[in-house]
Amino acid sequence: MRRAEARREEEERVRKERREREEMGGEKQKEVREKRREELEEARFMPVARGVEDEELNRELKGRLRWDDPAMAFLTQKEEGGGGGGGGSTAAASGTGKKTYKGAAAPNRYGIRPGHRWDGVDRGNGWEGERFRALNRTKRNKELDFAWQEDT
């Protein structure tokens, strides 16, 4: 009898501590906790193997923001810009306030980005393109030589 009472008192004490800890948390923590609880409840009814045809998984994966996503800059600009204007300009203000070219540009040996008034036409003689191709070719050949070398 005493063991049962002690166990009941211990359970009540643990329950009270848990309730106090939850009350100390903020609204956001409660929302996150509740959302996590709902996700776990929904996960009980999901199949173990989720494939390509799972629409909910596809929506979740598409909605994630990734640091290396090249389209993230376009998506964040749309959210910040708020529409309007519609003037397909390729120039935008940078952090310093100066305008920069926002289109694709061929790399150059100094890493200088083109000016905001550049029309996208490469008027060079192709020397830098050849140089980058040669550098890439030698790098690739070194990697292939290492990969295909024989142990003797």
UniProtKB/TrEMBL annotation:
One GO CC term on file: RES complex
Protein's GO biological process: mRNA splicing, via spliceosome
Compositional bias per record (Low complexity), positions renumbered to this chain: 90-106
Organism: Pseudogymnoascus destructans
Family: Belongs to the CWC26 family.
InterPro entries: Bud13, CWC26_splicing_factor
Residues covered by region (Disordered): 1-40, 76-125
Pfam family, one: Bud13
Origin superkingdom: Eukaryota
Protein name per Swiss-Prot or TrEMBL: Pre-mRNA-splicing factor cwc26
Signal sequence extent: none
UniProt GO MF annotations: RNA binding
